[in-house]
Amino acid sequence: MEVPASLVKELRFKTGAGVMQCKEALTASNGDIEAAVRWLREKGGAAAAKRVGRVAKEGLIYSYIHPGSKIGVMIEVNCETDFVARNPQFEQLVKDLAMQVAASSPTCVSRDQVPADVIEVEKDILKKQAEGEGKPAQVIEKIVTGRIEKFYGQVCLLEQPFVKDMNRSVQDMVTEAIATIGENIVVRRFVRYQLGGD
Amino acid sequence: MEVPASLVKELRFKTGAGVMQCKEALTASNGDIEAAVRWLREKGGAAAAKRVGRVAKEGLIYSYIHPGSKIGVMIEVNCETDFVARNPQFEQLVKDLAMQVAASSPTCVSRDQVPADVIEVEKDILKKQAEGEGKPAQVIEKIVTGRIEKFYGQVCLLEQPFVKDMNRSVQDMVTEAIATIGENIVVRRFVRYQLGGD
User: Fold this and answer.
1) Model ipTM?
2) Which residue among A137, A145, A169, B10 is buried most deeply as judged by most CB within 10 Å?
3) DSSP per residue over chain B, as a string?
């Protein structure tokens, strides 16, 4: 089947995927653009893994100021090309991430940014808690490990449940965007201000 | 002269000044609101000094994203009451401050936030520069002190020349706002992101 260039262009704009990939998706979907988007999403799962690690230094700086102007978030999300930075799906992802930060107050992007001494102190607290609950010694370590995972899930943006779909993590959402959009995407940094906070 | 309550209200909304002060200003200006604003501005100069140091924990969080979304600024500016936080003059001040940060990239709010070791290193560099320029030993210290002042004027937001009026410093503008608005105003913190920057 010959795929019209206009359809390729539209799919490319919609998903940010490459020209060849869009042609392939449209061919496989007989030119049905919604089916092609789904095809890219499914097909993209495997491709996403390959894209992680590619240099991402384009992107957007975006801010969300909560009504009342007492809470504000600014975030930088990187992708590989300026083309994708202007893609509506990428823009939506960035907006969702900013809302996530406003709503769930993470302190860092990912677990490698949690200082080791913070984890040590936290482990110590959790261990004493578990002991205080009268848990047997042989399961305390397991309990502490489990609760440390939960701790990461609270403080790390990427490990938080996504506020718009609590069954998925923020990381899941980013991975899906990498798959559909076809470029590596990196949440580089964010800052959250609360009036009178630190 | 009897001052109409509606005029007091308008002046109060315009400047954020207290009721008594607005009445006084309008009486002195024969009910001319523009003259009353000027009166408050001049009269306020002395009052501003008294207001500095009063607790300011209300205010606004505001962000400015430069067109293209590659530079962003978020800022928190405090005042004493939520009433003033919603005052248009205060809002304009906050906007001007955010634009200032976007345009002039300060690294901190005021000179007390510049780490002592940064100043030591800078002094060392400046001293060697002055020596390299063959300046006599007895004036080098003076030169270094002068250039350190210039350095503060570059890195500290409050000491920068105000981009909308380079004859005044940002501090002058804030002091004027304290005088006119009638509350202490504190630039609490800001952050400036540039795409791909640190």
Assistant:
1) 0.72
2) A169
3) -PPPHHHHHHHHHHH---HHHHHHHHHHTTT-HHHHHHHHHHHHHHHHHHHTTS---EEEEEEEE-TTSSEEEEEEEEES-HHHHT-HHHHHHHHHHHHHHHHH--SBSSGGGS-HHHHHHHHHHHHHHHHHTT--HHHHHHHHHHHHHHHHHHHBGGGSEETTEEEEEHHHHHHHHHHHH-S--EEEEEEEEETT--
